[in-house]
Structures are given as structure tokens and as C-alpha cells.
Amino acid sequence: MDESKIPNHIYQMSTINALVSGLYDGCISLNKLLQKGNFGIGTFKGLDGELTLLNGSFYRTRPDGSVYKCTKNEFVPFAVVTEFEEYRTYSIRDCNCYANIKKYLDNLIESKNVFYAFYFNGVFSHMKTKTVVKQNLPYRPMLNAIRDQHVFEYDEVEGHLMGFRCPSFVEGLNVPGYHFHFISKDKKLGGHVSEFSIKNADVRIQKCSCFRMELPDNENFYNMKVTNRNNEIKQVEK
């Protein structure tokens, strides 16, 4: 097995601080990213949609909320992937908001000091997603770019919700806490998840004890001014 695709290992391209700062240049192709795992989330070059890697296939959510499959020659500025292999599965019924779901998941995990991947399949009584809009050069910081984002809400939708929980000590490198993307079962709807409720779903959990991050190899990253953008990240993610 390719050592970069070992289950329970997380691979990340770039830092969340770099992305929020406006570094949207493509750093790695989807073809190479697939060599790192079969499951993950991210975005595309120029913030051209939300990226979801599900069972080895890449999907882009467009600004209108629609989803389509991507060719592997596209590039991304930021992504987090793993070779998904669950070690526990749980059933969740009638959990009525994101905050309660996070509390429930926190009680399932062994420690808040390691990474976890989560893969939900089921029916969601409510799903609120958002999708970024493609940016043109010169790129704006994300806090400005998300002014153009589109928000969608769905009721009684069946599909896949997936993402990661990162420890608090990766602040600046990734988003501490939970970060999910959604794709409907029919692969027609999706996006970055900002709120959801579960009617009936199974969640598979993978504990990830190894984290590998690759930094962008370009002048924009080399010259980036490193600042504390934690407040901006919280606003972008909510």
C-alpha cells in the first residue's frame, strides 16, 4: 500500500490561514490528491466551488447548490483527505440541531486531542449549506469573498454528510472542531454545512492519529504575511 494512503492518516494541503488570507492558487491536482486518500473536503482553485471527495470520486458544489463530478486534472488550494476506514458505527435518531449533534459526537470520541473523520448516511430533517463563488485575480481575503456566497436550506433530504473534527491545537493550520460538507443521495445538491438536524442516520467514525501537512510551493505563500486570523476563520465557518 502507498504509505500516503494508510487508513487513520490525514493529509492536508496548505493551511486554513493561507486560504482565509486569499491564497486560492492551485497547489495540487485532484489526481495527486486521490493518491492521499478516498475521502475528504476542500475547495477548488480560485474558490471555484466546494470540494467533496466521496468513495474516491470528486464532486464540486456550484454556487447554485448543484453538484457535479470533477475531472482529476483540476487543482485545489486547500484540502483535507484520508483513506477512510471506520472503526466505530453509531445510529442517530431525531437530533435537532448542529450544536446538539456536536455534543453527541464529543461523547462518542475517545479524546479531543486527536483527529477524527465522520461519515453520515441517512435522512436529515433539515440541512443548511453554503457555497463560495469563484474569485478572480487579484484575490480578495475570504471574509470579503464570502459576501457573494449562496445559502440553501433543505428539509427531509437524504444523503451523505462528511468531514473532520480537528483538535484545538491546530488553530491556524486547520479549523478547530467540526467541519462538514454535504451531498444528497442523488448527487444533485450539496455544499459546506452551516446547520443541520438528523432524522435518521448512521455515522461511521475513524480516529486519525497521524497528521501530515504539505505547504504550497509558490511565491504567494512564501511572501504571505502570517497573522492571527482566528476571528475571521470563525466568521467564515459559521
TrEMBL record:
<dbReference type="GO" id="GO:0045151">
    <property type="term" value="P:acetoin biosynthetic process"/>
</dbReference>
<comment type="similarity">
    <text>Belongs to the alpha-acetolactate decarboxylase family.</text>
</comment>
<comment type="pathway">
    <text>Polyol metabolism; (R,R)-butane-2,3-diol biosynthesis; (R,R)-butane-2,3-diol from pyruvate: step 2/3.</text>
</comment>
<keyword id="KW-0210">Decarboxylase</keyword>
<dbReference type="Pfam" id="PF03306">
    <property type="entry name" value="AAL_decarboxy"/>
</dbReference>
<keyword id="KW-0456">Lyase</keyword>
<dbReference type="InterPro" id="IPR005128">
    <property type="entry name" value="Acetolactate_a_deCO2ase"/>
</dbReference>
<protein>
    <recommendedName>
        <fullName>Alpha-acetolactate decarboxylase</fullName>
        <ecNumber>4.1.1.5</ecNumber>
    </recommendedName>
</protein>
<keyword id="KW-0005">Acetoin biosynthesis</keyword>
<dbReference type="GO" id="GO:0047605">
    <property type="term" value="F:acetolactate decarboxylase activity"/>
</dbReference>
